[in-house]
Design a protein that fits this description.
By secondary structure, this protein is α+β, with helices and mostly antiparallel strands. The chain has 3 helices and 6 strands, in the order ααββββββα. Strands 1, 2, 3, 4, 5 and 6 form a 6-stranded antiparallel sheet that branches. Strand 4 and strand 5 form a beta hairpin.
């Protein structure tokens, strides 16, 4: 059993709002909070995932407002309250579900648009980048008996890494799309 982490649910909700997703607009927008909360929590508690829901109030085949632990415990993390229908909660359901309904956290939406760089009227003076020495880490083999692989934690880390790389790709792509600088003819 994991402790009450309503703080993580509140952060996930704020992150969704900060990137311009209105969680009150649709069930799938609401699910963006749940996907983030599950990913954030899974990084600390590998047993945290999503609840498979084949019918009813769902998005991407999962319950929109519930996280599920690998042992079948479910926790309702969103409900009606002072912040509207998506008020962060931490309500443990006394009834467990079948463990085969547990799903690993899913990747979540990245910002639809990345703010444009500020435009400058005058050219900006640039300096060459100083080379930074690169240190090659020494890889020490780990014996499987001393560090077993936890598949759930590895999946949570991979999901977070993919989301970060997707965000970085969007930033780089946006930077590459900037118009070329026109040079004036000196005659």
């Amino acid at each position: 059993m994991i402790p009450n982490r309503i703080d993580i649910v509140q952060k996930a909700r704020q992150d969704v709002i900060d990137i311009g997703i209105n969680p009150d607009e649709s069930e799938c927008n609401r699910f963006e909070i749940t996907k983030r909360a599950a990913s954030y929590l899974a990084a600390m508690y590998p047993e945290v995932g999503l609840l498979f829901k084949p019918e009813g109030n769902r998005c991407e085949d999962c319950a929109v407002d519930i996280i599920c632990l690998a042992d079948g415990m479910i926790i309702d993390i969103l409900g009606q309250g002072k912040d509207g229908p998506n008020t962060p909660l931490w309500m443990i359901n006394p009834n467990r579900v079948s463990v085969d309904r547990w799903r690993a956290p899913l990747p979540y939406k990245m910002p639809v648009s990345i703010p444009a760089e500020p435009k400058h009227d005058e050219p900006i003076e640039t300096k060459p980048i100083e080379p930074i020495p690169i240190f090659v880490p020494v890889v020490v083999p780990i014996e499987p008996t001393t560090a077993p692989i936890n598949k759930n934690k590895a999946l949570a880390i991979i999901t977070t890494a993919i989301a970060a790389l997707t965000w970085l790709f969007h930033i780089i792509s946006k930077h590459d799309e900037s118009p070329p600088v026109k040079k004036s003819d000196d005659k």
